[in-house]
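User: Is it possible to get a 3D structure for a protein together with its bound compound? The compound here is iron/sulfur cluster. I've pasted both below.
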Amino acid sequence: MLRSIYIETYGCQMNFADTEIVNGILRKEGYEIAADIDGADAVFLNTCAIRDNAEQRIYGRLSNLSHLKKRNPHLVFGVLGCMAERLRANLLEQNSDVDIVCGPDEYRKLPALIDQAFEGEKGIRTQLSRVETYDDIVPLRTDGISAWVAVMRGCDKFCTFCVVPFTRGRERSRPMHGIVREVAGLLDRGFREVTLLGQNVNSYHDADADFADLLVAVAALDPQLRVRFTTSHPQDMSDRLIAAIAEHDNICKYIHLPFQSGSDRILALMNRTYSREHYLGLVKKIRAAVPDVALSTDVIAGFPTETEEDHQQTLSLMEEVRYDGAFMFKYSPREKTRAWNMGDDIPDEVKGRRLEEIIDLQRRISYEINRTIVGKRQRILLEGPSKRSDVEWMGRTDTNKTVIVPRGDFIAGDLLDVHISSATSATLFGRPVGIPAVEAA
Ligand code: SAH
Ligand code: SF4
Ligand code: F3S
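Assistant: Yes, that's possible. Here is the predicted structure of the complex:
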């Protein structure tokens, strides 16, 4: 009997890429991958553990899925990903609906776990690996414009707030030839953009090759292919990598460069291994080499012992750098991390207020930057109809800004020159160059 599996994915792009790997493994073993939860024989949640609210969301989802199990007691439920790795057997103990717990390095065991679960046996696999990169697995992707390609797994940085080294294990890189082969295959299938993924892509290595070599090798496959990457750690960003971005037209002029805090004292407590001065120097160097580069970042409000003065340092760093965008979070203590033992002394209202100040500042800066683009011409890669309206299309600039254009005779994957006519802090609006504005009505 053909069994169908449905996977719901939460968390970062690594998890979305992993779901494609899991689907690749399951399809090869003869399972059907369901597009819809209704009627699936097994339902998996590929989970995130980065902050407590990410986990609360999963608990909420598990409890509102339990009616499915009441209706069909043979339905198999599984938890994959970072929460599976973090909580292990506790998940089975806490929630009687859960049949399978499987961590990020054990996805090859899933077919066996699923078969056992259909026989009524619960199963758990959460060993982390120093070598697993799933290099030989062909991820199951739906055709599209943009693909995510994991180039490494795990993280050795051990930032003191972060659970990732515990949920994803030690850092390891995929062989370069496997990555290049995969991207060549994506090009043949019509993909126009790839994002090379890792928790810290700057420390990628394969024999003598480093991340700059990998990026150049991928970019060389086709000058029309857009190449993106994330995430860069400020300590490991090499001059060669900056030069590679500057020298290749199809390596996007967009760098996600998390700073986390503007205070040297907090950066040291976070074990980020760079200072404010180093970070600002790096930004200056990047901007000198790549003048039109867009920068985004991650920042945490309310790390243990953070004073008003530390917080002001964070705001002033943001003012100094002027990021195009930012992901902004309240500190959330995670068990096993070193910061867990530093307590969580900043009251929630204070964290909330600091976060709001950070968000307000960033929104203003994003708006100011986007406004300077109004009236200018930008080239966008069209991704498809916009989420909000079916008479509009959305595309992205090289600098990763979302642009909405009126629907025309385009197809997804087209590179389109647009005239930017207005902007908010999050979105640009434009019309194709040469097409009169009345089209937008
Ligand atoms: N590897 C990437 C990002 C990993 S997680 C990097 O090093 O930048 C994404 C972001 O979540 C982090 O950059 C950080 O800003 C945030 N984050 C991680 N752990 C957190 C925690 N315990 N509380 C709040 N935010 C956290
Ligand atoms: Fe977490 Fe730091 Fe590694 Fe990023 S670099 S995944 S924040 S430990
Ligand atoms: Fe979450 Fe795991 Fe990614 S904790 S952010 S899904 S690496």
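Residues 437-441 have pLDDT under 50 and may be disordered. The CA atoms of residues 25 and 137 lie 7 Å apart.
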